[in-house]
Amino acid sequence: MPTISMFYGILIRMFFYDTDKHQMPHIHAEYQGQVAVYSIPDGAVLAGELPIRKHKLVVAWIEIHQEDLLADWQLAVHGRKTFPIRGLDQ
After folding, report:
1. Which residue from 23, 39, 10, 33 is spatially nearest to 77, judged by alpha carbons?
2. Domain contains 87
3. Could you give the C-alpha distances from 43 to 79, 80, 81, in angstroms and in order?
4. What distance lies between CA 67 and its chain's CA centroid?
5. N or C end: fewer C-beta atoms under 10 angstroms in the chain?
6. Residue 22 confidence (pLDDT) above 60
7. Helix (H) or strand (E) holding 74
8. Which pLDDT belongs to residue 77?
9. What is the pLDDT of residue 23?
């Protein structure tokens, strides 16, 4: 699972071929051992949780980079290399 972005201690990852469990475009966000899965189209939490401040950062980042995330999703589901996406602290 490649890391596509990092900001404020949050790692954003996307699995290759990851369409079975959540069946929609999504990312995995990890912060200090806590993991949450977020829908790319609307930023909804599909599983897990993050501290509220980190959650708000992830949702804002998804909104800003939605087009890039959807492009990376198409690459990932076909087993192709994803591109890094700028974090909020860059």
Report:
1. 23
2. no
3. 23, 23, 23
4. 12
5. C
6. no
7. helix 66-77
8. 84
9. 72
Residue 52 CB partners (closer than 8 Å, separation 6+): none
In angstroms, the CA 59 to CA 42 distance is 8
Q: How confident is the model at residue 18 (pLDDT cuts 50, 70, 90)?
A: low
Assigned domain for 86 exists: no
Look at residue 11 and tell me if it is in a domain: yes
Residue 72's domain spans which residues? 3-77
CA 1 remoteness from chain centre: 11
- Which tens digits make up the pLDDT trace of 39-86? 999 999 999 999 999 999 999 999 999 999 999 999 988 888 999 999
The number of CA neighbours under 13 Å toward the Cβ of 88 is 17
The count of domains in the chain is: 1
Burial of residue 83 (CB within 10 Å: 0-12, 13-18, 19+) is exposed
